[in-house]
Amino acid sequence: LDAFNKLPSDVAIKIKSRQGKTYSLTTSPTTKLIDNHISINISDISTLKTAMWQLQRPISSSNMRLIQLADNPEVTLPKQNYGSKIPVDKVGTHQLLNALKTMRQQTFVISAKVENGFLMHGKEKIAVKDLEKVAADRDISLIILGSDKPKKTLQTLAKDWQKKKDDGSLNSYTTGDFYNAFAAKNSSAPIPIDIDTSGKLRTALHFDHRVPTKAAVEKQNSVIELASMPLNVLTKSAMLLQPNEARAKELDDRIHPAIPSWVHLSLIASLVIGLATYKTSWFLYLKLWASPHRVNYRHWFPFTIRYLLHRIVFVLFYLPLLGIFSPLYILITWIYRVIHFLLIRPAYWIFRKLG
User: Fold this and answer.
1) What is the DSSP string of 16-82?
2) Among 47, 106, 64, residue whose Cα is nearest residue 251
3) Beta partners for 23?
4) What angle do CA 123, 129, 130 make, to 5 degrees?
5) Cβ pair 175, 214 in contact under 8 A
6) Are strands 124-127 and 235-243 parallel, antiparallel or unpaired?
7) CA 39, CA 55: separation in Å to the nearest integer?
8) Are 80 and 65 in contact (CB under 8 A)?
9) Could you give the CA distance from residue 187 to residue 250 in angstroms, rounded to a whole number?
10) Given a cut of 70, is residue 339 above it in pLDDT?
11) pLDDT(199) > 50
12) Contact between residue 293 and residue 239 where contact means Cβ atoms under 8 Å apart
């Protein structure tokens, strides 16, 4: 970052990403990346790249869930609603972790009163650390909104996201856009967003701001009705825990979300190599399972079934799993032939003459 510090203090530094998003960078008194009404402290180039990547990442998945804690701690999460409307569902504190365990790579938004690392609801509470652990195991983007009015917060957020979904802009709604929604537009300075690691292959972005004084809220309520209060008034804190760049790339490379990408690549490579050495693969396969012959079957139907099964197993199982060994067999065969021609045959000839 020294190159930026050498610039004159009155020079406006702009950084444009590959996606076309423009950010500001200030170097005095500390280096900060600014995205409209929010800012992130930057310590080195790696932090700068990470911050830009995180701010440009889409905030919501196609299977998002907006959750409010229910009064009954045993209320289970209802099934996913795939309609056009974004619902706010309820789940009890005793069932919250189980609800997370049923998901994978989804966006899970929950609003509640947050105190000392716990979500509070009446006499019930649940540790944020427990939610983080389950979310990390399931690669879930977990959003926790600390608010004294969680119902109103989620309704406001759902209404805002519903509008974006209807006009087709929700898919391009980024993390930066999300955090900007919690910043007062008339603020004198951008609100600071902290970015740090949250366990292995996870990143946390979070901020806490002071709740407006009672007099300020009453003054604002005189102009704005409670039903239309902005998110920056309703929320005290916002925390987003999601896979970091390395983990996100790994998940994007997967064909099936539960199977590591290297497994998929290995199977595909084995299939391609097995097909490239088709004759050797077929030869080795017949050593494991001989091809059925019509003369051994009284009726054509069982023969046809076994014949088709024999071919299907070869393509779907043998080639992806063992096709990669065909070139190895060819290599070993050729090495043996060379050794046999250069060493074994001459030695055998000499011994036979001497004997």
Assistant:
1) E-TTS-EEEEE-SSS-EEEETTEEEE--SHHHHHHHHHHHHSBS--TT-EEEEE-SSTTPPPPPP--
2) 106
3) 15
4) 75
5) no
6) unpaired
7) 11
8) yes
9) 39
10) yes
11) yes
12) no
Tokens of 138: 């399931």
- pLDDT-derived band at 222 (thresholds 50, 70, 90) equals very low
CB 91 within 8 A of CB 76: yes
Torsion, CA 326, CA 330, CA 335, CA 340, rounded to 10: 120
Computed on alpha carbons and rounded to an integer, the radius of gyration of the chain in Å comes to 31
From 69, 66, 91, 80, select the one nearest 143 (Cα to Cα): 66
pTM: predicted TM-score of the whole model, two decimal places: 0.80
User: What is residue 352's predicted lDDT score, i.e. its pLDDT?
Assistant: 86
Place of tokens 């609801």: 121
1 touches 44 (CB < 8 A): yes
Helices (H), 167-213: 175-180
Tokens found for residue 173:
């709604």
Helix 326-339 with 261-276: angle, nearest 10 deg: 50
DSSP 101-156: HT-SS-EEEEEEEEETTEEEETTEEEEHHHHHHHHHHTT-EEEEEEES-HHHHHHH
